[in-house]
């Protein structure tokens, strides 16, 4: 019975020239809800924003997913309630700070170890089903900063000065140190670049 209902839902999408397989209905509906929720938060203050249409769309998708036995997606009311709670959630998550051991795997700082500060709690919370809506707010994990700029010197007399940026990897090493690698989307540092003070003797 459930499979038949999912097939009928796929057939309904086909009538609108959206050709999806029955096994793709779940993901397609979830994507619709995610895009609609994101648009609601981003554009709801526009005078010409179709509030009623987005509210109806989110409620319809949520109802259809429930009937088809898929996991829940939010209604417009739930999206706006989530957004209203975020200042408090954000404040709690950003309150605690800690020092984390880090190590650099390549570039001028290869082999250097130090500690870097970072939040104790992640934002959004790991079990937040609407965490994807953080979007442009900018989220973080519990750990050291995602990016860190570091000074380097270069040249025969090491009188050239610039900086390089490292990117933290997504998880710590088994020993607890967080690894960083040089960003590859920025110009490479000079070949003879070395850590500058105060890190020259770290």
Q: H/E element string?
A: HHHHEEEEEE
Total strands? 6
The helix content, as a percent range, equals 25-40%
Our count of helices gives: 4
Global shape = elongated
User: Which structural class do you get from the secondary structure elements?
Assistant: alpha+beta
* Average pLDDT rating: 91
**Major sheet: arrangement of strands:** 2-1-5-4-3-6
Low-confidence stretches: none
Rg (CA only): 24 Å
Approximately what portion of the residues adopt beta-strand conformation? 15-25%
Largest sheet: 6 strands, mixed
The end-to-end distance, rounded to whole angstroms, is 66 Å
How many domains? The number is 2
How would you summarize what this structure contains?
By secondary structure, the chain is of the alpha+beta class. It is built from four helices and six strands, in the order H-H-H-H-E-E-E-E-E-E.
Describe the structure.
This protein is of the alpha+beta class and 202 residues long. The chain has 2 domains: 82 residues, no CATH class; 100 residues, no CATH class. The chain is built from 4 helices and 6 strands. The chain has a 6-stranded mixed sheet with strand order 2-1-5-4-3-6. A hairpin with an 8-residue loop joins β1 and β2. α2 runs antiparallel to α3. The N and C termini lie far apart (66 Å).
């Amino acid at each position: 019975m459930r499979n038949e209902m999912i097939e009928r839902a796929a057939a309904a999408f086909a009538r609108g020239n959206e050709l999806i397989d029955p096994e793709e209905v779940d993901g397609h509906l979830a994507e619709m809800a995610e895009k609609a929720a994101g648009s609601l938060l981003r554009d709801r203050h526009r005078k010409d924003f179709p509030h009623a249409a987005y509210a109806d769309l989110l409620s319809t998708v949520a109802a259809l997913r429930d009937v088809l036995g898929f996991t829940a997606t939010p209604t417009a009311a739930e999206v706006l309630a989530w957004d209203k709670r975020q200042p408090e959630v954000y404040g709690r998550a950003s309150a605690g700070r800690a020092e984390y051991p880090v190590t650099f795997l390549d570039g001028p700082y290869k082999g250097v170890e130090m500690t870097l500060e970072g939040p104790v709690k992640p934002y959004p919370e790991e079990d937040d089903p609407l965490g994807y809506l953080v979007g442009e707010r900018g989220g973080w994990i519990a750990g050291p900063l995602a990016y860190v700029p570091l000074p380097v010197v270069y040249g025969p007399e090491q009188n050239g000065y610039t900086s390089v940026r490292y990117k933290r990897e997504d998880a710590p090493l088994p020993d607890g140190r967080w690894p960083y690698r040089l960003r590859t989307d920025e110009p490479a540092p000079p070949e003879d670049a070395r850590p500058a003070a105060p890190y020259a003797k770290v």
